[in-house]
Amino acid sequence: MDAILDTDGLCNLSATEMASYIRKGTVSAAELIDAVLARISRLDPSVNAFALVDEAGARKAAVAADIARANGGDLGPLHGVPFSVKDLILTEGVETAFGSHLLAGNIPDKDAAAVARLKRAGAILIGKTTTPEFAHKALTNSPRHGATRNPWNLDHTCGGSSGGAAVAAATGMGPLTVTTDGAGSSRIPASCCGVLGIKATLGRIPHEYAPDLFGNFSYIGAITRTTADLALMLNVMSGPERKDPWTQGVFAPPLNVASDPAARIEGVRLHYKPCLGNVMLDDNVAKAMAKGLDILCGAGATLERSDGREDWGNELARITIRAPYAARMAKYSEAERSKMDPSLVSAIAESESLDLRAVQNAPMERTALYQQTEAIFETADLLVTPVLGAPPPLVTHKANEPITINGQVAGPLRANWYNYPAPFNLTGHPAISIPCGMEPSGLPIGMQVVAPWFGEQQLIDIAAAMEQLQPWTDQWPPLIGQQA
């Protein structure tokens, strides 16, 4: 086998490359799945990215994929390509336990629409990635699965709540990972792990099993290493689904990556806010953001800036996200709650104690936040912010423990670390995390870019330009043991 197609070489391919090799017959789906499963077996004990690995199911699907190719059938754009799904999203015949002891053995009889679409495109499910219990926090650990670690430094968190997905993508344990994003849960771990993470426009990708469809702020998202893979994955998952009212009547044109991505940045108007309602930003994050913006401006983008100290709905996000917890978790007894993550129990108690008037005001405040965001796009094409106020804290950091920034205690994580992504869950705007460099100890830093509704092509353009001008795909976390 060619050197690039040994076990590590196969795992380091993008999904786009994998699909091309399979179509050409350079490699079989079975060989590819075996390689990825071998890497999972080697690396996952160190990082704990998978809640479960469906080896038997993946190998069976790979054999079927190879037979289909041999018989000359039509091959989908992801034929034979492995993908994983967050343990919060329904997968037919494969346990979906929401990271909880309480749902152990829950085997859905159907796939979520986004998962079904990936399978119809030929992709092969290899397993479910870790999440904090019921995705209630931005740090990926749970009583059931323990802590998921950052592959760039195992002593640090990978973020959350789609932490396992980001780690899987960053380490080549499958190039495509399906996520959810309720307050930044795709973008936060993507930033922590040096990969791409996106929350599309409300209604672009079906999320038909969201708890509150009509007041929805939770999205099916995606994490990949390359921009081409992200565009391909979004194209496959997007489109109307009758069970999700937000998708009705939506036609989202296919996304593409330009042959010269940097050329598409010429004349793009960027508006940069270093803060979004917070007052402190880590110095190394600020330096990385400045460098990234300089690169984009060097390619012809223009830049305006404001400090972002105005109210960006941090308290609104807390109320909106926490409000449903008491009702959703009411079915669990005190005995069952004793098996929950203590921080989830605290979140339920927080939900039960919310001020009624604040909950009543939340829909109107959400409307105002949408209008505040739209006002930016009157004079700018894209809004740019950091993804996080500081690099990833230690893996032992607690959800209720304050974050320290530049040697000073800044306050709660929600208001001072991951406050940047949540506003756009409430407004519906598409937002992406793009790798933007490393802080001195080698932990990744992400840039968030927000576009007008259905402006995903603009996000793909800017991600592709950054990948061209400041590449990250030639770097792999140290535990892989080699460079791509």
Would you mind describing this structure in some detail?
With 484 residues, the chain is an alpha/beta fold. The chain has one domain: Alpha-Beta Complex (Amidase signature (AS) enzymes). It contains 17 helices and 15 strands. The chain has helices at residues 7-11, 15-24, 29-47, 55-70, 113-120, 163-170, 187-193, 227-237, 283-298, 314-322, 325-328, 334-337, 342-352, 356-376, 413-416, 423-427, 456-469, and strands at residues 50-53, 82-86, 124-129, 141-142, 146-147, 176-181, 196-199, 219-224, 269-272, 302-305, 382-386, 403-405, 408-411, 431-438, 444-450. The strands form three sheets. Strands 1-3-2-6-8-7-14-15-11-9-10 form an eleven-stranded mixed beta sheet, with helices on both faces. The longest helix has 21 residues, at 356-376.
